[in-house]
Amino acid sequence: xxxxxxxxxxxxxxxxxxxxxxxxxYEGASMLTIAKAANASNxxxxxxxxxKQRLFLEIVKSxxxxxxxxxxxxxxxxxxxxxxxxxxxxxxLGLLLGEREIALNRAAASDATGKLGAAISxxxxxxxxxxxxxxxxxxxxxGVISAPSDEQAAEWYLTLLIGDxxxxxxxxxxxxxxxxxxxxxxxxxxxxxxQLCAADQVGV
Length: 204
Hints:
Residues 7-67 form the HTH tetR-type domain. By secondary structure, the chain is an all-alpha fold.
């Protein structure tokens, strides 16, 4: 199968997997049920993904691709400013509050084994946080921020950025925000973050 056709087929299978999970829950979304929904063979799913957990981990990985790409670009750029954090913040919130990510988190909340939640953690925080820390180091070196540590700056940034928004989306008390609402939220976060990371706050 040609690479582009295989990629398209994988996308169709992963979309079908999400649809099955929404209707049946994570435990009820068997590989056979997903295969039938995607008009694929069970053998194909096991050959391409290995098992159900890895199938959903691939969905998580595809969700974080845009933010990873943006972070890599920011880390290799010679210009690092407040605008970099603004851009990353919008992309990250768009990912974490989007329908696919929320569907995965809702399923993880009902997965008694904890396997899906672990997969989401590996796909999201464990892949993104180290890059956020690297970005904070780069911003500190260029004088944009100052903080007790790059890790602390990353934690401050993510806490201010995300807060309880993702939890509220998962439990259904917050609708999916528009791009304008995300832009407004990120703009409000920036002054507080930069104040926390002001040079005269370090060591206080």
